[in-house]
Design brief:
Chain B: Keywords: Cell membrane, Membrane, Transmembrane, Transmembrane helix. Chain B: InterPro entries: ABC_transp_permease, LivM-like. The complex is a heteropentamer of chains A (257), B (335), C (385), D (288) and E (235). With 257 residues, chain A is of the alpha/beta class. Chain A has 11 helices and 10 strands. Chain A folds into 2 domains: 166 residues, 3-Layer(aba) Sandwich (Rossmann fold), CATH 3.40.50.300; 80 residues, no CATH class. In chain A, 41% of the residues lie in helices and 23% in strands. In chain A, strand 9 and strand 10 form a beta hairpin. The N and C termini of chain A lie far apart (45 Å). Chain B has 335 residues and is mainly α. Chain B contains 14 helices and 2 strands. The longest helix of chain B has 34 residues. The radius of gyration of chain B is 22 Å and the shape is globular. In chain C, strand 10, helix 11 and strand 11 form a beta-alpha-beta unit. The interface between B and D is large, with 40 and 47 residues. The structure holds adenosine-5'-triphosphate (2 copies) and magnesium ion (2 copies).
């Protein structure tokens, strides 16, 4: 198991956003998290990626305990993520955004910068190559010099993917990667996710787009009010009455029409 | 590539002009104004690094400037050290204090950071003002020696001091440019852009902000040390908040977060305020509103404004080219 | 541009060229006189006061047809620049004045600025008209510095004696937190002790920073002093006196020379609260042949009584003119400086605002002591010869 | 013991002034997120306007204060309209710098009009009274009394009137306020008016025990920032409590530690607090 | 009553709405369906004056209201109960409701009457009227948000995903309240992802996809539409 979560809990004041969740993510697979708005999905991601400190519970990554590590330390271990509202470095170009993504794999410091040491030059070259590589991977090579404010929603999503990939991750957590993207482009993004998996990257994603999830996911976890209410293959989830009730839409209501 | 060459040529040209100035004129006043402007520019680059590129507005920089100046002053006057040694120690002292303050101050964010550093600046002022045994209090430190000669080179005359300060200015700009154009500079800008995102891509933002802050106090301390030996007298006033405000004004007029903003802004404002001397106490009646208007209409100062204008021009030109091309296409088709 | 044809405007110093009536004057050469002082910011009032004495003298001299040196007629032109009290600005201003206006003399009314100009005044050849009682400015041994105000050390003993006899031996110190206040306190403490007195409280008040003086005055009075040493600009000093009385202080006040008894009295609306004070005798209370005309003219022009800043600068301007005449040069600082003594002797009777007793070896003027006390609601001249 | 009580009384006086100034500052911060560096200039202008109407027009103290409150309140409004409103979408750094520009301008303007000298404001309550065995002046009792009254009135205004609720609503959720039909511009204008009025009132009641001069706002504003940070930026009770905390710590440290270092102590207090709690003492949970 | 003609909205470079044409008649109950980020909230924000359209016009009772500020629209009777509730968390339930009636602040009688009605609709709010709004549970907060909108006595109420984050039971409750409001004469425009429940009570509906209206019709038609079933009902 690549990621093992045990009894993970997070409270905000009086609200329990994530409530003792046990969960595992298998290497090389696509794992999805679904659930109603406010169910605690994003919070779950925030806990794993070190953005919030859990109130209790533990997170293991590749048999290291990362529960109390900081976000940047977790990123260095190979965990990348994207945000629900696409989060990019607004005032830069696509290339600059992605370029900085590789910074955590470089070690040049002030000294290198001032004296332009060979290490700096090498690492700058590396970062640039990496940036071009991931931009090509997500299909944005031609937009490299565009300002992020000039590109479309879907292109932003791709840039966010590229940024995550530039950190050389083992696993990426994608928070609603296809939100606000039309169906055709959604398919494109799904293809991209598949491509990532085939490259050996483990993917865990949150999505409300059921068709996409059902096609992509190997395993789905359903959260409701911070609690895990179901877990299983897409087929199992589709049929799960609790999930239909809480999320997919109560059959009772539909029939009553 | 063309523009890069142009930029490099401009820089070389500027440096050559700066070197020629003292040869063309004997006016010590002119040299004096340039020299002081150079000193401030160095300090303003420090402010630009942390405020403009890393996005943390520090209002304590007059304080760090003063720490540099007083360290050099005290070490030369009271301890009797050689100027160069004192300058080195002064910078070290400034950066150590900067480090200690930064560790605490950078835990706060945005407005809190600005006000926190404002208060830190004021504390530095109060300490300089009250600690008479060390700083001579309100009287100030007198008799600070000019930079000690290096071998045959002495720094007694306005010209030689001008060259010395020019050297440090060019060095500052060089270091600054190197930093900004490297991975480090990109890291700082990433933090300015979004600290949160920077963290998720594995950047240790606290450490990076701290390095940037310390480096910015380094420039402030260097400027302060040079100031002490240039003016050769220092009083607590140089650590007062108004001096930070002045530096901020230089930075804003030039363009915050731009490479050449500190240079352009400082030279310009220092000269303008010389020309506006006849207004005396009413200078601020003009400066105040100018500052406000500038912020509203040219938030990135002169350099930023020019950059935007150039981009627009280029866009216009390319659009014109495009429409011309289109026209020619149309014309062809009509034929 | 300037409109300073009415005298009332001249002291404002708000324009670079403060000369007036240039058109009416007989053609002759112009000698520029420099000034760099605080004309904006917190110290601006002080700066304006110093400048007012200078510009009054300059205007008078010009209106009287200038002065003659070596057979040539000259008029004066006062060039004043603002340095915001910052030494580096003073330095820049001085360089500019020398460079652009060829000023042989530059008046600087604060020690920081004086120190900053002493760094290069010998190279650039100009006299510093130094208005500061800071001892170090003359200790530097700068031959082109003339210290205008007197040393205040001579006040210590008579002031102390008077108050000790009248009120008692315990003194609490609450002067202004400026350098001047501190220097005073530093001299007063041993002086007071030498006379057998006791210093029961040492503090200082920063008028521009303290929001309320009650706290510190309370603390000082807790020690039950007989005499309170206060000082600084007249208005805040008056306020300290008032608050001390409010808090029940019945003793006397020993007032630093910066504050003027007459002004304090005016601020407090009468002599009741200042009863038992000792300080420098205000100019208007020591009218004599030397200063009567000046006091009247100044009051007419400025609408207020002249303080010592104005008086000394006024006199110093005349002194330098006399020195130029004696030296036979308007642009050789060394020559002018060498003839200051002679200039002093030639000073017209009605320009002797203060009685200068000597010029010290190191270039400091020494003035005769004038002491005033408030007894039975009146300011009384107690000058000791 | 006597001195302790006397000093506590002194602290109460000065704390009242601090609280009033800090209130205006925190109000603007809470609602518009502007750290208004020019607030100290409003304080100063307030003192001058009162003085002007007392001296040159011969108006009664209270009438002059009333005019000053209105004039400075309007000055606050003008500032909002001309400077901060155009900058409402700009990055936060810009507000601060624009405020500095306003500050420089107002100080120069006051110096131009009234000169740089220290001035005294004479209040009609210039009498010493014996109050519970302490020496106090009527003016000081007046400061404490009216400051507390002003705070109570402000509290009632904010709590009991619907306009007051609108102001608080805006500080808690801007969009929510729009959705119930609150006009953002009006609230901004009212807030700036109140803030300016509080500054003018504070300086008008404090001036008779101090002096009126162009730099009088400098340290007050700096301390007001210390206070609102201690009290949690935007928190109204925090500003009041913070004002008194600072008043007491200054007065007591001047008495028992060192007068020379009492200002330092106030600022060190802040540094200590922020070191432990980077967002201030009384800050409530996340504000959206 | 409410009519959008050719309305387009963009956020910076991103076009969130393209040529939206939409109308709601007096007393009608209309639902907007669409996935996350389709643009439903943007339509609401635009009607309420919180976002400015780059082109097109909005009419209310045959008068153009484009460009009016948010508070003017509220006083005209267009009230939104927004996504994310936008309550005043540190104010009490009572204060929140009173502010809901801000536009009628001079009419005390009306305020009292509305308050009474709201408390009748949601008795729980009366019980909790002195508690800070932030302390309520999600469902209660949603009720408060609706109640606050009702305090303005709206002619048209815009409800943006009122069922968000609510337990199914509460969802049903909320929906029946909305139905009740509509029956009492208030025109309702509702945005929902929960097509199932929404179509059950609405008269008519529009389907939005990436900023465009792709389908419109009566609730029954939409419910039976295969595309809709596939995309939004999932069964
Ligand atoms: N920083 C925070 N402070 C307080 N409460 C929070 C915070 N972050 C999230 N919450 C609360 O935690 C709960 C879960 O939120 P979360 O963002 O994880 O939901 P989600 O499942 O991602 O929903 P959605 O599908 O709408 O994105 C919500 O009630 C939210 O209001
Ligand atoms: N302030 C904004 N700046 C930039 N883009 C925005 C902004 N608000 C919304 N968007 C984008 O506009 C699109 C439409 O958003 P909108 O909120 O209207 O969707 P929605 O249909 O209400 O979705 P949901 O079901 O998530 O509430 C989305 O892609 C969203 O990311
Ligand atoms: Mg989420
Ligand atoms: Mg929405």
């Amino acid at each position: 198991m690549l990621v093992q979560v045990k009894g993970l809990t997070k409270t905000f004041g009086g609200l329990t956003a994530v409530n003792s969740v046990d969960f595992e993510i298998e290497k090389g697979k696509v794992t999805a998290i679904i659930g109603p708005n406010g169910a605690g999905k994003s919070t779950f991601f925030n806990l794993i990626s070190g953005f919030h400190q859990p109130s209790s519970g533990s997170v293991m990554f590749d048999s290291t305990d990362i529960t109390s590590l900081k976000a940047h330390q977790i990123a260095k271990l190979g965990i990348a993520r994207t945000f629900q509202t696409t989060h990019l470095f607004e005032q830069s170009t696509v290339l600059d955004n992605v370029l900085i993504g590789h910074r955590l794999r470089t070690s040049s410091g002030l000294f290198d910068a001032i004296f332009r040491t060979s290490r700096l030059k090498r690492e700058e070259k590396e970062s640039l190559e990496k940036a071009h590589e991931v931009l090509e991977f997500v299909g944005l090579t031609n937009l490299a010099d565009k300002h992020v404010s000039e590109i479309s929603q879907e292109e932003m999503k791709r840039t966010a993917f590229a940024l995550a990939l530039a950190t050389d991750p083992t696993i990426v957590f994608l928070d609603e990667p296809a939100a606000g993207v039309n169906p055709e482009e959604t398919d494109g993004l799904a293809e991209l996710i598949k491509k990532m998996v085939s490259k050996g990257i483990t993917v865990c994603l949150i999505e409300h787009k059921m068709q996409m999830i059902m096609n992509l996911a190997d395993k789905i976890m359903v959260l409701n009010y911070g609690q895990k209410i179901a877990e299983g293959t897409p087929e199992e989830i589709k049929k799960n009455p609790a999930v239909i009730e809480a999320y997919l839409g109560g059959e009772a209501v539909a029939q009553a029409y | 590539m063309m523009s890069f060459l142009n930029k490099r040529n401009t820089v070389i040209l500027l440096v050559v002009v700066a070197i020629l100035v003292p040869l063309l004129t004997d006016n010590p006043y002119l040299l004096h104004i340039f020299s002081t402007a150079f000193i401030w520019t160095i300090g303003v680059y420090g402010l630009n690094l942390i405020g403009g590129f890393t996005g943390q507005l520090s209002l304590a920089h007059a304080g760090f400037f003063a720490i540099g100046a007083y360290s050099v002053g005290i070490l030369t006057v009271k301890v009797g050290l050689n100027f160069w040694l004192a300058l080195l120690l002064g910078i070290i002292i400034t950066t150590i204090i900067g480090l200690l303050i930064g560790i605490i101050a950078l835990r706060t964010k945005e407005h809190f950071f600005a006000i926190y550093t404002l208060c830190v600046g004021y504390i530095i002022y109060l300490i300089i003002y009250k600690w008479e045994a060390l700083t001579e209090g309100v009287r100030g430190l007198i008799g600070i020696p000019p930079p000690a000669p290096i071998g045959p080179i002495t720094f007694q005359t306005p010209k030689s001091q001008y060259y010395l300060l020019l050297f440090f200015l060019v060095l500052t700009i060089f270091i600054f440019t190197r930093i900004i154009n490297s991975l480090i500079g990109r890291t700082y800008m990433a933090i300015r852009n979004s600290e949160e995102l920077a963290q998720t891509i594995g950047i240790e933002t606290m450490k990076q902000k701290l390095v940037s802050f310390v480096l910015s106090t380094f420039f402030a301390g260097l400027a302060g040390g040079l100031y002490a030996s240039f003016v050769r007298f220092i009083g607590p006033d140089i650590s007062y908040i108004n001096v930070t405000f002045d530096m901020l004004m230089y930075l804003l007029v030039g363009g915050i977060g731009t490479l050449s903003g500190p240079l352009v802004g400082t030279l310009l404002v220092v000269w303008i305020s010389q020309y506006l001397q006849f207004l005396q106490d009413y200078r601020m009646l003009i400066f105040g509103p100018i500052l406000v208007l500038l912020i509203i209409f040219y938030p990135r100062g002169i350099v930023g404004g020019v950059q935007t204008w150039l981009i627009k021009q280029r866009a216009k030109k390319s659009q014109k080219d495009l429409s011309r091309n289109l026209q020619s296409v149309v014309v062809k088709e009509e034929k | 541009g300037n409109t300073s044809t009415e005298p009332a405007n001249q002291s404002e110093g708000n324009t670079e060229e403060t000369t007036s009536n240039t058109e009416e004057k007989p053609a002759g050469e112009v000698v520029n006189i420099g000034y760099s002082g605080p004309l904006s910011g917190p110290a601006a009032y002080y700066g304006e006061n110093t400048l007012s004495g200078l510009s009054m003298a300059v205007d008078e001299i010009n209106n009287n047809g200038g002065f003659e040196v070596d057979g040539k007629n000259y008029s004066l032109n006062l060039v004043s620049l603002d340095d915001k009290y910052l030494p580096n600005e003073t330095g820049a201003n001085a360089k500019r004045l020398v460079q652009e206006d060829k000023t042989p003399i530059i008046f600087v009314p604060h020690s920081g600025g004086i120190f900053a100009t002493q760094v290069f005044n010998l190279q650039e050849k100009f006299i510093i008209g130094a208005y500061s009682s800071e001892p170090k400015i003359t200790e530097q041994g700068n031959p082109l510095t003339l210290r205008i105000p007197p040393k205040y050390s001579s006040y210590i003993e008579p002031f102390s004696k008077y108050q000790m006899e009248r009120f008692g031996k315990k003194i609490a110190m609450l002067p202004t937190a400026s350098q001047y206040g501190k220097d005073w306190a530093a001299l007063l403490e041993p002086g007071w002790k030498d006379l057998g007195g006791e210093v029961v409280y040492k503090g200082s008040i920063d008028f521009s920073k303290d929001t309320d003086f009650f706290t510190i005055v309370t603390n000082a009075l807790k020690e039950k002093p007989d005499v309170l040493f206060v000082g600084g600009p007249s208005e805040p000093t008056a306020l300290v006196i008032k608050q001390a009385r409010e808090l029940g202080f019945k003793g006397g006040f020993l007032i630093m020379d910066q504050a003027k008894l007459d002004e304090i009295e005016a601020v407090l609306g009468g002599p009741d609260l200042v009863e038992g004070s000792v300080g420098v005798l205000p100019l208007i209370h020591s009218k004599n042949d030397g200063n009567a005309k000046f006091i009247e003219d100044y009051a007419a022009a400025q609408g207020k009584n002249p303080g010592s800043e104005a008086g000394y600068h006024y006199m110093a301007m005349y002194l330098f003119v006399e020195a130029m005449k004696a030296a036979g040069s308007v642009d050789d600082p060394d020559a002018i400086m060498a003839k200051v003594e002679e200039g002093l002797n030639n000073l017209p009777a009605d320009k002797r605002i203060y009685e200068i007793t000597e010029i010290e070896e190191n270039g400091g003027l020494t003035t005769e002591l004038r002491m005033g006390v408030v007894e039975d609601g009146k300011i009384v001249d107690k000058s000791v010869q | 013991m006597d001195i302790l009580f006397q000093q506590l009384f002194n602290a109460l006086t000065i704390g009242s002034v601090y609280s009033l100034v800090a209130l205006g500052l925190t109000l603007v911060y809470g609602i518009l997120h502007i750290p208004n560096f020019a607030h100290g200039a409003l304080y100063m202008v307030g003192g001058y306007i009162t003085l002007l109407f007392m001296e040159s027009m011969g108006l009664h103290y209270w009438l002059a204060i009333l005019i000053s409150i209105i004039v400075v309140g309007l000055l606050g409004v003008v500032m909002e309209r001309l400077v901060f409103h155009p900058l409402r979408n700009a990055p936060p750094i810009h507000d601060k710098i624009a405020a500095i520009g306003v500050l420089l301008f107002l100080e120069a303007l006051v110096q131009l009009v009234w000169g740089a000298e220290y001035r005294r404001m004479l209040s009609p309550y210039d009498i010493v009274v014996d109050f519970l065995g302490l020496t106090v002046t009527a003016q000081r009792l007046l400061i404490i009394g009216t400051a507390i009254l002003a705070m109570i009135l402000l509290h009632l205004f904010l709590k009991k009137t619907i306009t007051g609720s609108a102001i608080i609503a805006m500080s808690q959720n801007r969009e929510g306020a729009f959705l119930v039909g609150i006009n953002a511009n009006k609230v901004a204008v009212i807030t700036f008016f109140i803030s300016g009025a509080l500054a003018a009132f504070a300086s008008s009641i404090a001036s008779p025990i101090n002096l009126v001069f162009p730099g009088m706002g400098h340290l007050v504003i700096l301390k007001a920032f210390v206070i609102i940070i201690i009290g949690g930026m935007g928190s109204i009770p925090g500003a009041i409590i913070g004002g008194y905390i600072l008043g007491f710590s200054e007065s007591l440290s001047a008495t028992f530690i060192s007068n020379d270092y009492k200002d330092l102590i106030a600022f060190l207090l802040l540094v200590a607090i922020l070191t432990i709690k980077p967002k201030g003492l009384f800050v409530k949970g996340a504000r959206s | 009553m409410l009519k959008l003609t050719d309305v387009s909205v963009s956020y910076g470079g991103y076009q969130a709405l393209e040529h939206i044409n939409l109308s709601v008649k007096q007393g009608e109950f209309v639902v907007l369906l669409g996935a996350n980020g389709a643009g439903k909230s943007t339509i609401f924000r635009t009607i309420s004056g919180l976002s400015k359209p780059s082109s097109g016009s909005i009419e209310f009772n045959d008068q153009s209201i484009s460009g009016l500020s948010a508070d003017r629209l509220v006083s005209l009777g267009i009230v939104q109960c927004a996504e994310g509730r936008k309550l005043f968390p540190q104010m009490t339930v009572y204060e929140n409701l009173i502010l809901g009636g801000f536009v009628h602040r001079r009419d005390k009688g009306k305020r009292k009457k509305s308050l009474h009605e709201v408390f009748e609709l949601f008795p729980i709010l009366n019980d909790k009227k002195d508690d800070p709004a932030g302390s309520l549970s999600g469902g209660q907060q949603q009720m408060l948000a609706i109640g606050r909108a009702l305090m303005a006595s709206p002619k048209v109420i815009l409800l943006d995903e009122p069922s968000i984050g609510l337990a199914p039971l509460i969802v049903e409750q909320v929906f029946s309240v909305i139905q009740q409001i509509n029956k009492n004469g208030t025109t309702v425009l509702l945005a929902e992802q929960n097509a199932n429940a929404a179509l059950k009570i609405a008269d008519r509906g529009y389907v939005i996809e990436t900023g465009k209206i792709v389908l419109e019709g009566s609730s029954k038609d939409l419910f039976e539409n295969d595309e809709v079933r596939k995309a939004y009902i999932g069964a």
